[in-house]
Amino acid sequence: MVNQERLWQRLMALGEIGKQPSGGITRLSFTAEERAAKNLVRQWMIEAGLAVREDAVGNLIGRREGRDAGAAVVLAGSHLDSVLNGGNFDGPLGALSAVEAMQCMNEAGVQTDRPIEVIAFTDEEGARFRFGMIGSRALAGTLTLDELEATDSDGVRILDAMRQAGLNPAKISEAARSKGSVHAYVEVHIEQGKVLEQAGLPVGVVTGLAGPLWLKFTIIGQASHAGTTPMSMRHDALVGAAEILQVIEHETRKEERTVGTVGQFSVFPGGVNIIPGRVEFTLDLRDVDADTRQNVELRIRQQARQICDARGLALDVQVLQDIDPVHCSVDIQNTVYEACAALGLKAIPVVSGAGHDCMQLRDLCPVGMIFVRSKDGVSHHPDEWSSPEDCAAGAAVLYHTLLKLATV
Ligand code: GLV
Ligand code: MN
Ligand code: MN
């Protein structure tokens, strides 16, 4: 029923945009690459018979009317931006599955009661500004002008990047949807883990998502001559940071599901013969349980403070983004199971370790996700891959899920 070949060809064509020599994809928000990706998907939305527009934050939206144009809309989609040197499925599969489902409905002449909108959210990953889910925050009405002050590695603020992309940051509130205007949000996404592969199943039904907390640690010591400063007289920011990294690993490993990652690390001034005077690093800390994550965070902060005090170092910890864990709607989960059953697919419940745009919509509407099996569980890496058959299975489950959700 869904056109596997068409979906796959589109995925592969989109994967040419932002392709790196490594074969990975870098498509950061508000760049020419992201613009090109949106333009291409816009064409496919038009081919699918959708009415296309972009909102005040650059979310690309394709609408298919229902019998009742005034009814609350069903939203389905994902994002087109990537991490640095990421894969071709994280995001694009969800957006293109939703386009495919809409095209199939039009080809089959199916009518729904509610309108359905396909959405490609602006900047889900947060790779450029260390602050993500920009499009979904705007849609939920929670994005603030203060948050648009966050900068990329060249010092460009989100505000500036939006202006360069032809958007007016003062108008972000126009992207917000009112409560009651959105009936549900559903997203197809690759699992990015190994549960489905180990179970031998193409799709899974997401029960909940771990909440990411992103912190930036800055440790200030005393830069000085590496040859003339005795070991007992140093305030080496890097050695202090190294101790904190050990604490992060130790404290996260005490918990069953908590994960902590230091993915960016900078040493200043960065000379072979200079004692590091300043170190900056990020921490990405996640758990499906908010209390557990908070306890781990507190333990890390306390011990980091003690380490710095003992070494005569100054410590600053800045919150880059703090997203609570989310439970998916049980009604939507049941609808996805019914869709799987209609297709003769067995599906199992899965938890998302990754963050997704639906987290921002939690107070706007019920949210749900359909996961597609990932090869070797690899993601945020050029080797990310899901088979054409599994991608089509995800799109088919989405088709049936949307049909049901869009029926009054
Ligand atoms: C996005 O993929 C995230 O979970 O960081
Ligand atoms: Mn994603
Ligand atoms: Mn991702």
Describe this structure in words.
α3 links the parallel β3 and β4 (116-121). The chain folds into 2 domains: 4-210 and 325-405, Zn peptidases (Aminopeptidase), CATH 3.40.630.10; 213-322, Alpha-Beta Plaits, CATH 3.30.70. The protein is 33% helix and 22% strand. It has 10 helices and 16 strands. It has helices at 4-14, 32-47, 92-108, 134-140, 158-164, 195-199, 237-253, 290-311, 330-342, 388-405, and strands spanning 51-54, 60-64, 73-79, 116-121, 182-190, 203-209, 211-220, 224-225, 259-261, 265-268, 274-275, 278-287, 314-322, 326-327, 348-352, 367-372. The mean pLDDT is 98. Strands 1, 2, 3, 4, 5, 6, 14, 15 and 16 form a 9-stranded mixed sheet that branches. Strands 7, 9, 10, 12 and 13 form a 5-stranded antiparallel sheet that branches. A two-stranded antiparallel ribbon has the order 8-11. The protein is α+β, with helices and mostly antiparallel strands and 408 residues long. α1 packs antiparallel against α3 and α9 (330-342) packs across α10. The structure holds glyoxylic acid and manganese (II) ion (2 copies).
